Amino acid sequence: MKAVIVCASVSHGNTKRIADAMGQVLEASVVAPEQADMAELSTCDLVGFGSGIFLGKFHPQLRRFVGSLPQGDRRRAFVFATSGLPEPRFRPFTRPLVRVLEQKGWEVNDAFSCRGFDTWLPFKLAGGINKGRPGVTDLEAARTFAERLRARIGAVS
């Protein structure tokens, strides 16, 4: 199985740590959106898209990249995020990115999110929240998520 993870990790490296843990399991390279090669993505069995969450949304760099993907390229994908606050059930922050990918013809197999160190105001005044996150448990959860994806995609391929 060939996989690539496109990751925008700009504040504290939270999302990159999660992407690297998943990448080890999936034997996938982890690239920033500006480094991603569209031709390579079209040859992948699975592509991950992730970033930190800013004001309830994925990073604009990742959103622009996903918006630039060609229409109708039927590939399997997953999305992932780190956030200072938990993902609300009534308005999941992963849903809009999943919708854009699906509108472009991607089959989104799953989504993953976990807490991350956050120093956005007003949290900065208190030294941030979720210090030490993602931690060992979060990284293990990311690996387990990737193992399930690998098993599911490998069974289909």
From TrEMBL:
Residues 7-85 form the Flavodoxin domain. Signal peptide: none annotated. It comes from the Bacteria. Coiled coil: none annotated. Gene3D superfamilies: 3.40.50.360. This is Flavodoxin family protein. It comes from Streptomyces roseoverticillatus.
